[in-house]
């Protein structure tokens, strides 16, 4: 007998899709407002207007619910830029990261999910998948740049994209420095300079 796919691996239709959407919305709100400790499945079921048994049967644990939320966010994220310029593409990437992290709901939600990943293995694995999906999506900007001769052959696309967002997450979680377009542009410029120098 084949193993069932993990939560979020298949997008169901009809009532099942509506139930999942309602539960994930309630879970995201709870995480953004009160953190991972607020992710009580019974309370999420109540807020979502869904039977408690359904929520426990489908997700089972708070970690699995957080993981499904992250998988859904990865699938629904915006596609990469295709401006024809690696400088503009990386700047667009950095500004999208800043826009997400400074959004009143999304910023708090990401902080809660990152905190959850430190104490819950399911959430940690889902966070790794989320960033892998997003980095892979934007890595094409670097691959295209190498083909156009803008960056050295052998440049690692994933390393460049990770270098764009790293200082922005560091500011969010560690230094508290302002996250704005100027910060985004500096992050993109730093990653681009390193890529042009062959560091990546």
Automatic annotation (TrEMBL):
SUPFAM superfamilies: Homeodomain-like (SSF46689), Tetracyclin repressor-like, C-terminal domain (SSF48498). Residues 40-59 bind DNA. InterPro entries: Homeodomain-like_sf, HTH-type_TetR-like_transc_reg, HTH_TetR, Tet_transcr_reg_TetR-rel_C_sf, TetR_C. GO terms for molecular function: DNA-binding transcription factor activity; transcription cis-regulatory region binding. Residues 17-77 form the HTH tetR-type domain. PANTHER family: HTH-TYPE TRANSCRIPTIONAL REGULATOR RUTR, TETR-FAMILY TRANSCRIPTIONAL REGULATOR. This is TetR/AcrR family transcriptional regulator.
């Amino acid at each position: 007998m084949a193993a069932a796919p993990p939560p979020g691996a298949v997008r169901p239709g009809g009532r099942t899709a509506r139930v999942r959407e309602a539960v994930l919305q309630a879970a995201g709100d709870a995480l953004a407002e009160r953190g991972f400790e607020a992710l009580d499945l019974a309370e999420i079921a109540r807020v979502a207007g869904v039977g408690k048994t359904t929520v426990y049967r489908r997700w089972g644990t708070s970690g699995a619910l957080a993981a499904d939320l992250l998988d859904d966010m990865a699938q629904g994220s915006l596609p990469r830029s295709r401006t024809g310029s690696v400088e503009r593409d990386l700047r667009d990437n950095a500004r999208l990261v800043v826009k997400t992290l400074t959004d009143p709901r999304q910023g708090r939600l990401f902080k809660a999910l990152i905190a959850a990943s430190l104490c819950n293995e399911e959430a940690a694995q889902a966070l790794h998948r989320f960033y892998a999906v997003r980095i892979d999506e934007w890595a094409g900007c670097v691959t295209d740049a190498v083909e156009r001769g803008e960056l050295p052959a052998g440049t690692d696309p994933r390393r460049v994209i990770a270098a764009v967002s790293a200082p922005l997450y560091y500011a969010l979680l560690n230094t508290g420095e302002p996250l704005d377009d100027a910060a985004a542009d500096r992050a993109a410029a730093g990653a681009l300079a390193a890529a042009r120098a062959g560091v990546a």
